[in-house]
Amino acid sequence: MKQWIDKLRQERTLTPEEFRQLLTGCDAEILRYINKQAQEVALLHFGNKIYIRGLIEISNCCRNNCYYCGIRKGNPNIERYRLSRESILNCCKQGYELGFRTFVLQGGEDPALTNDQIEMTVARIRQEYPDCAITLSLGEKSREAYERFFRAGANRYLLRHETYNELHYRQLHPAEMSGKRRLQCLADLKEIGYQTGTGIMVGSPGQTVEHIIEDILFIEKLRPEMIGIGPFLPHHDTPFAGHPNGTVEQTILLLSIFRLMHPAALIPATTALGTADPKGREKGLLAGANVVMPNLSPVKDRKKYELYDNKICTGDEAAECRVCLKNRVKSVGFELVEDRGDVAL
Ligand code: 5AD
Ligand code: FES
Question: Which residue minimizes the CA distance to atom 4 of ligand 2?
Fold first, then answer.
């Protein structure tokens, strides 16, 4: 098994069969080995720096009904909210004072948030914070909308493809959603010039090793600047309520595989990983992740953005999350840095 890991580090890829062996035959010792290799590669590329991004959850209203997601349209049991432009700008102001130089505006596909409004919000942030990176994570939009946001000053876009396999995509999403359309969005984003992020949930219902291999090969071809990988965690008000969660081990194995394949990519230790295990984010950093994303959303709305059960950080002020993460990052030997951390592949 170690020979595949050494080969992966050297050649940055494996054959599907070798990936299959690695994904199915990875015991505790092999996992330690690949985590260490991945950490070394991250260290060579970034030193011991970990980048920090301020996450602002701007709306939990969504027109989609993804079976895994707690803010799906079909969940009548959550209180819906949408931040005003002033509130978003206020989160940015707080974040800027705390040292954040990247703001991530994330939200559901909220029909009431028009492209005009999003464009205007981006333009205002761009105007007030010319030195900051603006990342959007607002789902599938038309190419024209993506172009407008880009011209208004957005630099990056996060859109996980969730799964490359069409049949698996069908198992995770209702018929009106299309995996093809999502991949087209990613192609558009790249072409427009966004630093683009994609990724998957690990252990989502119906996911097989073969699916994961397809995802690995898709991401290899797309060459995204950011790769978001977190465990699937069930939400009690979704059709997947009873499903088991994705494991920390499988998640950090994949983090390491992606780090070895994409040495320069920005790979977060996700909130979902920190929810699955109290030391999950630290384990992610030790497996090659190099980004953390503390929450800058207003505390009164945090609890309402619950994509999965028991999400951490829902009661903590931005400043508390910032300090908490700083200490966590330090505890495993890394240093939090405040620069934008742009990546050019
Ligand atoms: N568990 C883990 N991750 C989830 N996401 C959505 N719902 C869940 C869940 N139940 C992830 C999706 C989405 C990102 C914003 O959050 O991958 O792209
Ligand atoms: Fe939010 Fe620890 S990162 S409280």
Answer: 321
The tokens describing 18, both together, are: 């070798």
**Residue 227, strand partner residues:** 198
pTM of the predicted protein model:
0.98
pLDDT in tens, 310-319: 999 999 899 9
Q: What is the pLDDT of residues 122-169, one digit of tens each?
A: 999 999 999 999 999 999 999 999 999 999 999 999 999 999 999 999
For ligand 2, which residues put their CB under 6 angstroms from it? 294, 313, 316, 320-321, 324-325
Closest ligand 1 atom, CA of 240? 10
Other Cβ atoms less than 10 A from the Cβ of 318: the count is 23
Q: Which ligand is nearest to the CA of 282?
A: 2
Give strand ranges (E) for the chain.
49-52, 54-59, 102-107, 133-137, 156-158, 195-202, 226-231, 291-292, 335-337
Q: Which atom of ligand 2 is nearest to the CA of 320?
A: 4
Question: Tokens 């011991």, residue?
Answer: 48
